[in-house]
Design goal:
Number of domains: 1
Strand order of the largest sheet: 3-2-1-7-8-10-9
CATH architecture: 3-Layer(aba) Sandwich
Number of strands: 10
Number of helices: 11
Keywords: Methyltransferase, Transferase
InterPro entries: FkbM_Methyltransferase, FkbM_mtfrase, SAM-dependent_MTases_sf
Oligomer: single chain
Strand content: 15-25%
CATH class: Alpha Beta
Largest sheet: 7 strands, mixed
Pfam families: Methyltransf_21 (PF05050)
GO molecular function: O-methyltransferase activity
Radius of gyration: 20 Å
Distance between the termini: 12 Å
Shape: globular
Helix content: 25-40%
Order of helices and strands: HEHEHEEEHHEEHHEHEEHHH
Protein name: FkbM family methyltransferase
Structural class: alpha/beta
CATH topology: Rossmann fold
């Protein structure tokens, strides 16, 4: 077996939703799965230039839609000089003033009225196993307006803020309370952004940080300490995501152990996975 999906004999392809799919921060965590044909991606990106870039580069297992996902209301989109800072929230001048490099990039150069769609109301999403989301402060609205679809999900990678850069932006604590209430627990950091506080510059590099936490990509997974609420298929999809997206072989192994105990996979699957994770033939 070359991948966990084959080992676990999943009944369907893992469905991934990427909200705010603008590819400004490098490769998404699901790239290995996408490259191997192990998933299908439905992405959302309301910024025309970013959407055009996604459509031009997409493969056979990707589709991208122009919707802004949120609370279902109409809001003003603040388009910033740096597209990655564009948000439904107003940039906070006092917060951006703390970071010299970011301050000019946060200038709002255009304001556009935009209708948002609730995640639960998007019919194009039939299944949702893994949500990746980065929409500059709007994540909590998506979680609250997507509880029905997220009930199927087993993993969420979300941007969380330690220093809020926008007026009224929810901080990490509010995100954590909501996702725990929906049955998720933190698993790992996919990335942590530190930033230098102005006017300090280290070694002539205005981007070289010291200790100040700005934001992070935090991965939440279904609470595997209480697996009685997870179906066999959910355990299988989470094991696949844990292995291929985050190299979390300990989590994947624990989930496969649970599946063996349930009789949902053949005896010996755990041993076969250990061999797969080690890159050795099973036997």
């Amino acid at each position: 077996m070359s991948n966990v999906r084959d080992l676990l004999r999943l009944a369907r392809t893992t469905e991934i939703v990427d909200i705010g799919a603008n590819p400004i921060d490098g490769d998404p965590p699901y790239k290995p799965m996408l490259a191997a044909g192990l998933c299908r991606v439905t992405g959302f990106e309301p910024q025309p230039e970013a959407l055009a870039a996604l459509l031009a580069a997409k493969g056979p297992h990707e589709r991208y839609l122009p919707h802004a996902v949120g609370d279902g209301g109409t809001h003003e989109l603040k388009i910033c000089r740096a597209s990655g800072l564009t948000s439904l929230y107003e940039p906070d001048p006092a917060a951006f003033a703390l970071f010299d490099v970011l301050k000019p990039l946060s200038e709002v150069i255009e304001r556009v009225e935009i209708a948002t769609r609730r995640l639960d109301d998007i019919d194009e999403i039939e299944h949702l196993d893994f949500l990746k989301i980065d929409i500059q402060g709007g994540e909590l609205d998506v979680f609250r307006s997507g509880r029905r679809k997220l009930a199927e999900a087993v993993a969420i990678q979300t941007e969380v803020s330690f220093m809020t850069l926008y007026q009224g932006q929810p901080a990490i604590g509010e995100i954590d309370v909501e996702l725990r209430a929906q049955g998720f627990v933190p698993h790992c950091f996919a990335g942590v952004k530190l930033w230098p506080i102005a006017p300090c510059v280290i070694g002539g590099d205005p981007r070289r940080p010291l200790n100040q936490l700005l934001e992070a990509d935090l991965v939440y997974v279904r609470d595997f300490a209480h697996p009685e609420g997870l179906s066999d298929d959910q355990l299988k999809h989470l094991a696949t995501i844990a292995h291929h997206c985050y190299a979390s072989i300990d989590l994947a192994l624990r989930l496969i152990l649970l599946l063996e105990q349930r009789g949902a996979v053949p005896p010996g699957t755990r041993k076969a996975y250990v061999a797969l994770a080690a890159g050795k033939p099973a036997g």
